[in-house]
Amino acid sequence: MKLLIIAPEQNPIPPQVGGSVEYCIAQIAKRISDEHQVTVISVHRNGLPRKSVNGNTTIYRVSGDGSSQRYMNNVIQKVKGRRYDMIQIDNRPSFVRAVRKAFPGTLIAVFMHSMTFVSKPMTTKRRANHNFHYADLIVANSESLQMSLTKRFPEHLSKIRYVHLGVDTKKFYPDKKGRLRAFHFLFAGRLIPRKGIPILLKAYKIARRTVPSMRLSIAGGALKQSYKNELMRKVRKLNIPVTFAGNLSHDRMPAFYRSGHCLICPSQKHEAFGLVNVEAMACGLPVIASKIGGIPEIVEVGRNGLLVKMYRKPTAFASCMVNLAKDSALWNQLSVQARKDAKKRFSWRRTARSLIEIYEEYL
């Protein structure tokens, strides 16, 4: 199969820092190219060549200058006239119409990573629905996202499927040597309101009344520096010891996970999948997370972590934090199973295989 993957206009492939969608593209393309010919096209950034070839994977990087329209024009110019069996557009339904015009007879799949780009303020329901008409297939990264897309766009029900994302279990693995003696909670993700960090900080304050030695570290970049400053002011006001590790590259994330005992994911809005959860689990970390979106497809209560139903209440998270920090037998049980589940259920090779099976079915 000849597969073309079109990345969003924001980050290059591979991403230098951040860029979870682009990171997923790079990991999936790497596994698919074992048996198929893959072409990836992304935005160009300084320090990366315009073209990279690695085995059966070719990456082209075109100029975008911050404009999705300009980027899309350059993408079409680069690949128009070539033949592909399938074209995958990641997380940008707005690109489909232009791609369909350039490739009228080629199957087109839109791989959705969230509801962001089919909702306001990014677009309207009517416009997103219209864009989907030009696609042959819509792939979601979780069953929860599949259900959300189906509910919002029922006329496309027959072409909406899902595959779970994965984790590189050879890169993300347990190592207890780097952990602090004190129970160490971690947060990893963008520093934005929907991630629920203020809830976590209040929960941590409450939990420390019972287990004063526990620690908390936060890794992630802020879209707005003012929001990070607001979080730091809240930390000072609550008088709690919190370490802000900054925006870590993907290469540095395994060491960050291995420094802790448990990942906290206090999302306050729909989380389609939650890549950080499977990464932490692969490193032997149980996960305490909001019972929302696709998270319960990954985190199972009493098996590899704990789910918080009342996720808007800091006391609910605090209770789980205390229970885990005080019960070493429970922590060890969840830790061992978290690693097993990550290896068995969430490998990138499994993701790639499931995706190719869907594509071959359509072909």
From TrEMBL:
Residues 183-340 form the Glycosyl transferase family domain. Keywords: Transferase. Residues 21-170 form the Glycosyltransferase subfamily 4-like N-terminal domain. InterPro entries: Glyco_trans_1, Glyco_trans_4-like_N, Glycosyltransferase_grp1. It comes from the Bacteria. The keyword Oxidoreductase does not apply. GO terms for molecular function: glycosyltransferase activity. It holds the Pfam family Glycos_transf_1. PANTHER family: SULFOQUINOVOSYL TRANSFERASE SQD2 (PTHR45947). This is Glycosyltransferase family 1 protein.
